[in-house]
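## Example record

The block below lists the input lines for one assembly entry, exactly as stored, with component labels intact.
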Amino acid sequence: MNSVDPAELSALLDGELSPERTEKVRGALAENSELRSVFENLLAVHRELTACGLAARFRPRIWLPSGTRFPVVDVLGFAVAMLILRVTVKFVPLGVGVILQATALAVVLWWVSSCLLRLAHDERWPYAKSEAANMA
Amino acid sequence: MLGKDSSTVEESFEQRIEPLLDRAAAYAYAIVHQREDAEDVLQEAAFKGFLAFESYDPARPFMAWWFMIIRNCCRDLLRRKHTRCSSVEIGQPELATNPNFGADRQDEVRWVLEQLSDSHGEILKLRYFGECSYREIAAVLSIPEGTVMSRLYAARQAMAAIYKKRSK
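Predicted structure tokens for the full assembly:
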């Protein structure tokens, strides 16, 4: 007689039994040759599948979106800044106004170019670092 | 604040899937049988996961959540292929090369897996190709852990019976 559920033999292979049950199942295996025969069959299948599973592993190439979405906050901020600038230049001397407008133009050009660059690289290879590490 | 920062979401998603990629690839490969198809499935699953990540419940195991997406993507791909082809393509699947486990043996294991019922084949693929724990398998298949244990046992028994029959 043994109090071992045959499904526990399977769980023993997977290391999913509690230490107490592991002990119990091992004890039953030592005593019961029929149970041992079932276990050996399961073990043979387990070995084949484990080897096949390992052989099937590979490193896929995955691309993710860069995470840049339509910059709503940026656009709103830009519009507000432009309005403030337009009002401000009316109340400051001409030279200061020109400097302010030139600065605003530079910021706008920088912002547009960075947006275009991000769009051009909409997808990217996120695992370059780990791949390089593996190759090294 | 306007919701979650997208760059944080992306990094967090990347960080979570990176250690799972090899296993996910083997799992998808076991289902779709072609490496290119497995890569396509993983790409699609990564993209879908990325988009849905904001709705992911951290109380659930991430691996199970992402593997469910992979499983659905594999099914969609097989369904698309099935509807596209009028006949089943029979040929040598592309096999990963491993000197310790030859192509013939891999071929045989795959053949035996295909002879099993869907539920047995599925659980073995999750266990051995996806290397999922019982808890993760239970979450992917939405079944109790006790059922995982008994189903795995039955699946292994069925596989052993097929081997035995073949060896006669």
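Residues 1-5, 85-97 of chain B have pLDDT under 50 and may be disordered. The helical segments of chain B are 6-17, 21-32, 35-52, 62-84, 103-115, 118-129, 134-141, 145-167.
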